[in-house]
Amino acid sequence: MSFLWRFVPSRDLLRIPLLRWLVITRFFGDLFFYSTTMVLFEQQRGLNFTEMFLMEAILSGAILLADVPTSILAERIGYARIMLIGRVIGLVGMVCFAIAHGFWLFALAEVLGGIAIASVSGCESALIYTSLPPQKRSSQGSTAFALLSSASSASFFLGLLTGSFLGAYSPTLAVVASFVPALLAFFASLRLYHYALATSVAENTEVVPINRAVHTAWHAILTQPKLACLSLLRWIAFAMTNSIFWYNQPYFQQAEIPVALFGPLMAAAMGLQLFLVLRTPTIQKLLGARFLLACSCLLPGLCYLLLTWLHTPLLTIGLVAGVVCFSVWQTPIIEQEINKRIADRSRATTLSALSLIGMLGKGMVDPIIGHLGDIGLDRVSMGMGSMLLLLGFIAFLLIPQAAGSHLGL
After folding, report:
1. CB 201 within 8 A of CB 304
2. Half-sphere exposure for 252 (CA within 13 Å, toward CB)
3. Which run of H or of E encompasses 409?
4. Roughly what angle, to the nearest 10 degrees, separates helices 244-254 and 313-326?
5. Quick check: 392 and 316 in contact, CB under 8 A?
6. Is pLDDT larger for residue 52 or for residue 274?
7. What's this model's pTM, rounded to 2 decimal places?
8. CA 51, 55, 61, 62 torsion: positive or negative?
9. Which one of 38, 59, 71, 118 is at 20 to 30 Å from 311 when CA atoms are compared?
């Protein structure tokens, strides 16, 4: 067993109990088996496509409304406690989703799901950063966030790989089976809470007044506008690269790839993404954070542009996988850059305020992405490819020269 442990990336960080349980909680929390058959499940329960996309809007709205309040509360009662509460709310939301028939119960499930996501978002990043020794945050921060991202990639890979088989038998079975990892995420959060209580560094020992936390958060944003720009870059780029999970099907159909291969191909792409994110620290040491962040936009943008003209099966598969894989560097790099510039005392509130700004930008971009799809698939490739290339050049301006690559960029 010790021999195999030597091959685990970032194993030194995984020896820290808080970080280990954060990774485990993230893995189970992001593991769903119904993503590939959710449309069929919701159709069977009485929803049409208009109502399905309205559910996405309700989910985003719930996240936006709950994000800052839950983070302010977390500054007072502890990050891990709010995350635990969020897991409980998420379980209740999953029950509503599983038994829903018609619009309103689905809407309630999305509201609860949004609150659960908001309860985790800022707290998770704050907890993983503050759990590192202060003297090691600069050197190990990116590695810790990459490790967290790898947990998501691994869970998405497993969900895509196995969920289609469950959903093909019964879309309801895929939803019910997702209760297992949700419960495991809850129990992992209990362990996380236990270690957070035992670690004085991980939780605030001083109760910060709400007005001071909000003031500190907005002061950080106003005095460091690049923080808001980094958050906007992250969420707008995410909207464009993540849309490949909707547009991959028409791209595959255009290349005459059999429908039965859609799920396995995207699972393989997630496997490659996991491989790359685990090696983010090594690649960052070689290229530098500045250049790697730019590549996380430039390379997916180039893949999108090439999809305009290259329609053979193998090239289409490779280019779609490129959009999925190369974008994975954005989150760990931006999380590290933002976290090292903000204060511990209002960390979760500041992160949630930045997330709010970023998601507002994403909300403005999402309808444009959908409109491009209505115009034509080539418009999607050209539009998102060009925008990602532009974001790649902007990325060079958002990280200081000192954090740039060893190549002098």
Report:
1. no
2. 19
3. none
4. 170
5. no
6. 274
7. 0.70
8. positive
9. 38
Q: Is 399 helix (H, G, I), strand (E, B) or coil?
A: coil
Helix residue ranges, H only, 6-48: 11-14, 17-29, 38-44
User: What's the pLDDT at 202?
Assistant: 43
pLDDT over 90 at 140, yes or no: no
pLDDT at 138: 65
User: Could you tell me if 272 and 321 are in contact, meaning their C-beta atoms sit under 8 angstroms apart?
Assistant: yes
Residue with the two structure tokens 């005095």: 223
Judged on CB neighbours under 10 Å (0-12, 13-18, 19+), 225 is: exposed
Does 391 score more than 80 pLDDT? yes
